Amino acid sequence: MFSRIDFQTTDECNLNCAFCYSKTDVRRPYSREIADSAMEFILKQPPLISNRSGRRIVSWGWMGGEPLLYWPQMKEFMEQWRAACPEVEFNFGMTSNMVLATPEVQQWCRINGVSIQCSFDGCRAVQEIQRGHFDEVEVNAKEFIRLNPRGGVRATITPDCAHLYPESVKYFVGLGFKAISGVPASCDGWTEAAIERYGAAIRQITNWWIEEMMKGRFIYLWHFRRAFAALWNPYRQKRRPCGAGTAMIGVDTAGNLWPCHRFCHAGMNETFKLGNLEIGITSNLPERIAAWDARGPYCAEACNECPAVNACGGPCMYVAASETGDLFQMSRRDWPFCQFNRLYWAEAMRAHAILNRRDCKTYLKQFGGHRCRR
To answer: Which one of 41, 76, 195, 373 is at 20 to 30 Å from 257 when CA atoms are compared?
Structure first.
């Protein structure tokens, strides 16, 4: 049952990030016809009903490229579909590099319940190396925080800048962000030396975070999320919480259907295409993905002995498909992420031991409200 569409608004982008998974010479523009067809497709799916409102829920993510290159068209689309289907609870959102997320755009989104995932890589040194446009993005990020006091930021961490992540975390907190998702780029360059630099950075952040917690200041850190969930609720973990290919579906600018937005760039191997908007789902991949997910968080023999297994979502299907030609086969690019997950688990356990021993009320309140069973 698909309840979310990640819609590839355009392949065009106003930046040229070296780590981008969607790099291609093809730059397909936005199509209102394709967007309408995608909405009609999702509305034909079995409905997901809100327990709170009793209305049908449809989640729509504007992806790219950079969606805001087509802001007037996006705005018109959202207004017209909400007017046409008042019985549907539309959850619109977008991922933006924030260069074009002006105060006017953000204020409209805030008033109309459109969420923005703020994609901003960090302090000036990091942002200028990886994306550029630091000054414009910082201004727009400050407006984002003013409108969303509990808002979060997503930062891409590359091998070259991994050692600067602690500086970026403190910079984000200084701006007012309460949630920080630092996500390592799935790119070449994660050598053993780079992984060790990143490990040193994460350990430094853990030390800082422990002291912040003791002062009663809670900051959400993405890299601790699954580790603490597994620590407090060890039986509730599952493979890949993203829902790609089962609850979520990607639609590219040509109207093709894919497991998620990462598959939606031009030139992707059509073996992984689920179908298209004209004829619907023609592949058995959704059933195969659901069966794979049901196996639990084990994807290789080594997983049986890994202490972080219950805090791991398994390999990214897009990375696996791009590297090996098989959605379910671990690739060489997954190896660093195994190291990262073990690192996050070890640091979460260290933070837990210290904060539990110090009887940190902020920590206990945020993660379970009761003593851990371990």
So the answer is: 76
